[in-house]
Amino acid sequence: MNNDTKHRYGRISRLFHWGIAVLIGWQLLKFFDRIADGEHWIGQTLVPWHISIGTLVLLLVVLRILWVAKQRGNRPEHDPATSFLVKSGHFLLYAGMVLLPVTGILTMLGNGYGLTAFGIQLAAQGEEISWMASLGSLHSPIAWLLLILIVGHIGMALLHHFVKKDDVLRRML
Ligand code: HEM
Ligand code: HEM
């Protein structure tokens, strides 16, 4: 089933969730540049895709948000006691997925580097634009916040599955 239901996320929501989760995990490997200045296997083979994958994530997240809007009122429900917290957590995950590529692109444009994704030039090198570079400097703090949120998110999913033994994880599998 492509569409979501009250009991389960449909095929398209699951594809978006797990596809983007893998890409975000890949993007977070950029933190490994802090170790030995990125002079290691991760830094030399996976991290150089950072700008291309990040730009792809922005496109996919926009499509995902449109899909979620279409599925509104037709998605698995949450325990009313914690529904507000769960929805706020998911909202913040979306905010992180949008703001990271946006601030990443602002870093590139603001410093006059231009933007090239998968070999396609999207913006040429140019002059520095200081307000863009300033907003872009939020990229790293937002990445730390998203990392903390994701750890909490995975922890809650495992708690539901192994401690509460409900169907919260299964409906996303
Ligand atoms: C889902 C998208 C993205 C995630 C999760 C992400 C994550 C990260 C992380 C974890 C770091 C390392 C920060 C640190 O060590 O403090 C980083 C740095 C960086 N990212 Fe991204 N990023 C994303 C998208 C992008 C995009 C689209 C661009 C450019 C178009 C970009 C450009 C950069 C640059 C230039 C740095 C190094 C400078 C800095 O730390 O501000 N990122 N990113
Ligand atoms: C091992 C990694 C992950 C696991 C086990 C996991 C598990 C889950 C589960 C079980 C749900 C359903 C929750 C519910 O119905 O209340 C869910 C939803 C969600 N997850 Fe994850 N997740 C993971 C990684 C991620 C990552 C990396 C992100 C994005 C940064 C993310 C973003 C979301 C969002 C936004 C939802 C809300 C449903 C939607 O709109 O698609 N997840 N996740």
Tell me the Rg in angstroms.
Answer: 18 Å
Summarize the amount of helix as a percent range: 55-70%
Major sheet characteristics: 2 strands, antiparallel
Strand order of the largest sheet: 1-2
Given the helix and strand composition, which structural class is it? Answer: mainly alpha
Poorly predicted runs of 5 or more residues:
none
Total helical segments: 6
Oligomer: single chain
Describe this structure in words.
This protein has 173 residues and is mostly helical. The chain has one domain: Fumarate Reductase Cytochrome B subunit. The chain has six helices and two strands. The protein has helices at 11-28, 41-46, 50-71, 83-110, 130-136, 139-164; strands at 115-117, 120-123. A two-stranded antiparallel ribbon has the order 1-2. The longest helix is centred in the middle third of the chain and has 28 residues, at 83-110. The relative contact order is 0.12. The mean pLDDT is 97. One protoporphyrin IX containing FE is lined by residues 13, 17, 21, 24, 68, 76, 78, 86, 90, 93-94, 97, 150, 153-154, 157, 168-169, 171-172.
Brief account:
The protein has 173 residues and is mainly α.
Brief descriptors of the model:
2 strands; 173 residues; binds protoporphyrin IX containing FE; two-stranded antiparallel sheet; single chain; 6 helices; Fumarate Reductase Cytochrome B subunit; globular; mainly alpha
